[in-house]
Amino acid sequence: MNGKVILVGAGPGDSGLLTLRGRAALEAADVVVYDALVGQGVLAMIPPNARRINVGKRSSNHLVPQHEINQILLHEAQEGNNVVRLKGGDPFLFGRGGEELELLAEHGVDFEVVPGITSAIAVPAYAGIPVTHRDFTSSLHIITGHTKAKAEAQIDYPSLVKLNGTLVFLMGISAMPTIMEGLLAGGIDPDMPAAVLERGTTAHQRRVVSTVKNLVEDACAAGIKTPAIIVVGRVCALAGQFHWAEDRPLGGLRILITRPRELMSAFAGRLRALGAEVVELPSIATQAIPDNTALTGAFSCLDRYQWLTFTSPSGVRIFFEELRRMRRDVRCLAGLKLAAIGPSTARALEEHGLQIDLMPERYDAAHLGGALGVAANGARVLILRAKIGSPELTRALERAGVGYDDVPLYETVYACANAELVKDQLEQGEVDYVAFTSASTVKGFVGAMGDLDYSKLNAVCIGEQTAAEAQQYGMKIVTAQSATIDSMIDCLTGLSRLKEGGV
Ligand code: SAH
Questions:
Q1: So which residues are the signal peptide here (predicted)?
Q2: Which of 3, 372, 378, 502 sits in a 20 to 30 Å window from 19, CA-based?
Q3: Which atom of ligand 1 is nearest to the CA of 97?
Q4: Which of 203, 120, 211, 209 is nearest to 168 (CA)?
């Protein structure tokens, strides 16, 4: 049976601009066919088990020709796959979406279209330019600077100028001199405001606001490159007053985060809310220990313990999954005291209706062991954590003469999808900071990246152990003041301010 092709507009770059329908389609995809303009953040939403086909390498010599793309879509759908064809912006606005549907329609393959937010409107919006404004203009015209035949020759500049609306040119960077000359010859006011907007809606977006007569020179001086759009019209002058995207606390920063997938979204969400562009590269994954006899053993004699201690949110999650699998009730924990290494772990317990009794002053294994050594006062402790846990915890308990059982709940495995894309970005200096929330994420990240000049990377580390690991690869390191996500975010906000100040 045939599958289906869903033509999805990915928006102009910022992953928050993908539509809900677009995301639902991605989540159900078997195969995703995408091209160069699709933002990293959107690519990260492709489920790990879906096959990815990149048909738009930036350098044009790798570009897959259109007729081949059409064939790929047809073939994959005929194999019975749910195919998502992801395209930058809106698929029908200079996106050749129409051409891609022709072959499918001919062969009776089902398709759907999910419109996207187009760069023609969103890129100006992120630069503080409303494409229409009642005081200045009442129409918007979107024009391509590049068509099948010689583009510039086809544009009727005198008519465009007469419309007196906002003009947005896509794919017009190389033809910019011709376009500006055409407008001037068509009678436009040489002092009419005009702007070039590069990589709009991403962390590294840039804008040059000028006039029709000076735009080419000013854009050249700024070294503007594609992808960029040209906007001509009085509304461009509003950018000076309405710019906002870069002004957010983490605006202008592209941050790579490496946490395990299940912990990713909360951190990423907070960074995005503060204006950062987040690239997600889950570098480690946690795997519950199968047939965990140590755990069942501990459970069969829970009354031996007075304390349970957890050292990570993953540990808490897996513990409760195991509890459920063993058909044990949370009431079996009644009477036990609970210790957590830090606030995230404490919060994970709270989500299960449990309030902790102890959390160390500093959120690391040594301090947890120290505090428990005093609090346990000779009573036995059940440690529930990763298979390879820090020996500092048990060492501190031994020093205090406290008996314990160290029960492994999970193993950390190093696993990275889409490592190649991220590596490209790192090599090109496109990532401002890499955030590491544990020493194991550093290990997983380095394992996935392999050969790379790590001395160029700016690492923001959650604590000393993580920093020590990153140090081994020569990364430039900043360490959060206290070992929490909040503190990491404070640290990044401070770094962003420094960057703004040009330091
Ligand atoms: N379907 C897309 C346009 C495809 S044509 C849409 O609706 O946005 C490709 C052109 O879009 C580029 O040459 C550039 O002019 C523009 N473009 C796409 N994304 C952009 C971005 N993030 N910043 C600036 N221009 C962009």
A1: none
A2: 3
A3: 1
A4: 120
